[in-house]
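Hi there, hope your week has been kind to you so far. Do you reckon you could talk me through the fold, stretch by stretch? Thanks so much in advance, here it is.
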Amino acid sequence: MIRLDSRSPVPERLRGAILALGNFDGFHRGHQAVVGEAIRRAREQGRPAIVATFDPHPVRFFDPTAEPFRLTTLDQRAELFAAAGADAMLVIGFDADVAGMSAQSWVEDGLHGHLGAAGVVTGEDFTFGKGRTGNPQVLRTLGAPLGMEAVTVGPVHDGEGPISSSRIREALKAGDCEAAAALLTRPFAIRGTVQHGDKVGRTIGFPTANLPLDTYLRPRFGVYAVTGRVIGQDRVLQGAANVGIRPQFDPPKELLEPHFFDFSGDLYGQEIEVAFHHFLRPEGKFASLDELVAQMHKDCDRARALLG
């Protein structure tokens, strides 16, 4: 997957592309429909297909104190876009300059002039430009004289209504991994580099890989049945993981701590991805370490059964 930066020139071979434009955090079924339409049109016309996404998210730019809400990192999105068939990912660095651009400048200077896009595909609710004055109709009106086609894809529905990132976040905050996975078409997964911790888990027979939560949405704190993989390797590991503040230990610290079954390798410093399959229980503080260990054995047995 070729990764482009919006501040740099676009390689000549990628000019004239069909661009899927949106944030696409999570890349759920609705996002997949938008990107899929852009790729279909690109292949039909013999053009490159580029998926544009924002970093940071505009919400984070306008409100730096907002609670973490990301469903995917740029690296995860790049892999998902590539698997969908895109030729490149364009990262739009959302800063004061971008936030202050008029809708007309977005279209004429950005999409047409800088990127050389032949067509743009968005969702129906996509907005752009200073004060969110741009929308799909504005995109069509401004793009037509430039020979740039603008196409809109409607929302994808299931039995509960339109599929959205908000619904996925609500499901994860409730610990409903299965509902989130149905909307995403895959389990929600957190990716990070394994850190050294206090190594308490190793002393009680449950070594864990400690991962920071960074800007990811915080799912419901508790214990989950998970799978994990080391980035760049094919092997899938099964395990149980605690995500939360570890109330049994001081000081409280937000971490994702997966324990992988039947694994004894060294993961320190390696990048791994942990996928959430089933919520087992809320995290809690036990009267003794022995009670915690007994519960962890039960958690692991249940996780094995669910993942098996």
